[in-house]
Amino acid sequence: MEDDQEMKINDNVYEFCKPDNPSVEIIFFHGIQMGEEDVTKLHLSTWTVKSEEADAPPEYWPQTFFAKDELLTSKNISVRALTACYDPSKFKTDNTGRLDIYNIAENFTHSIIDSNRVKVGLRTGVPVIMVGHSFGGLLIKKLVEQVADKARLNGNHHKNLQKFLDNLKGLFFYSTPHRALKDAVVQRLFPPGNRTYSALPQLFEQLNKDAGRLHEAMTRFAKRHKIMVTEAFEVNDTDLGDNLEPIKIVTEASAVCGDRAFAISEDHFNVCRPRDVKSLNYQALADFIVEIVEREKAGTDAAGLDLPEVGRGRFVREENGNECARDTEREASNGPESWEFAF
Predict the structure, then answer these.
(1) Considering the entire predicted model, what is its pTM?
(2) Cα–Cα distance between 156 and 135 in angstroms, integer?
(3) Which end of the chain is flanked by fewer CB atoms within 10 Å, N or C?
(4) Which CATH architecture has domain 4-339?
């Protein structure tokens, strides 16, 4: 496992793995502080392997899984994986609680796309996939919207932005509330008290009001540009550590969007933390990668089919907590019929 400083490119970007000639570039976006959990390294801890051993050293699966996945290696698919870093704290202190979605968008442009050390999305024939957990998924949609607006208004001065958008082929979400969070959840996340909150409560209020418009806009954008969209969502309730009953953070109705949806028998924190390469919450992403890379190599449009209407797609549901095998899942997803709901 590399030292955190060895993974760091700049204050906003860390790199999990960097092959010489990547087949695909993936950028991971973490969520925000939900309860009292430690979020000092949420850009890394979000993507740790789920282990039953409490004292096990952290393993970041985007750093280790891709290279040992037999499906990816058999197809000679090499993954460049990076993670975005931003302030996720919901409490405002002298050093935390400075989250500003518009500043993040600007930092993203300069730190990931235009940076000479990063340069994501600028390689011809190398698709880009953006992966977001929870709030990170909403951030992705806002970022793409802002990058697209800037490229459209100032195309001659921001040619890299258009290259990035041209190479953007996939959006993969882990429990992102595309249709807003329930009021009861927001109240649990930001209860009244003596501590000072950051701008997150106001931001969530704004995003909740804007969720429908943003979701519809992203659906149209993805359809127009042949961008594949997939979601994996939580099935289990989440303990927020506030001595109250566990609660469902993101409901199925709010989470489902795009081509396919995968029901994962985990809570909100662990929906994006696979145990191994056979876990459905990893396999869903790995198969997504293969599909995008193979279509790019074949020179076809990303989906080959129009994206389904909002609220339609393919479900792969875990039964009794048992994860679907990759071969079974793939067999079930062949052919046009797979774009309908399948339980």
Answers:
(1) 0.85
(2) 32
(3) C
(4) 3-Layer(aba) Sandwich (3.40)
